[in-house]
Amino acid sequence: MDVKISPRWKELLGAEFEKPYFAELVRFVKQEYATRRVFPAGRNIFHAFDMCDPDDIKVVVIGQDPYHGEGQAHGLCFSVNDGVPFPPSLVNIFQEVRDDTGAAVPASGNLDRWASQGVLLLNAVLTVRAHEPASHAGRGWEQFTDAVVRAIAAHRDRVVYMLWGSYAQRKGAIVDPARNCILKAVHPSPLSAYRGFFGCRHFSQANAYLEANGRTPVVW
Fold first, then answer.
1. Average pLDDT, whole number, for the chain?
2. Which residues are catalytically annotated?
3. What b/e sequence results for 137-161 when a residue is b if at least 16 CB atoms lie within 10 Å of its CB, and e otherwise?
4. pTM of the predicted model over 0.85
5. What's the N-to-C CA distance of the chain in angstroms?
6. Among 39, 93, 183, 220, which lies 20 to 30 A Cα-Cα from 110?
């Protein structure tokens, strides 16, 4: 089965693409794109992987599913296309980056600039119907992205995992904390950010860990 993902990822994840669940997932996703409005654009389904080679990963951030509003999603969790107003969770993320590191709030919510530095911005579900959150949950994406987390955990040590909220924390439970840096907080959603996301200082902690392990810190 031909999946348009970068060669190194295909090498690590190739066995998944041959499993029955993935064939059914591809069938479902193709049908959805053919008959409904679905985000992100098909070319961006694996954008997070294209932007971040597995051999370069420094940080993993786990989201749930793509933004479901027009023009928002482009394949990276929490990120929006240039020119799109920041969703509330991203507003809170940028506030914490500013308070933690002193970095100014950027003009664009496009997080390609993080991904290009080795930050894998991974949604658990990679597609969604317009205006229907979680509409592609339970179709196989979660099994695939569980395999992604397992592959990273097996392939690369001294990675920072930012696990925001119980969903991300369950998905990251496989990662060995003795060989990596696990940072946990509540989700940056306005419903929970004031209960521990603000003040978590994950961005400075991540950079301190990276520098301590001989890696270049991320310019947040």
1. 96
2. 65
3. eebbbbebbebbbebbbeebeebbb
4. yes
5. 37
6. 183
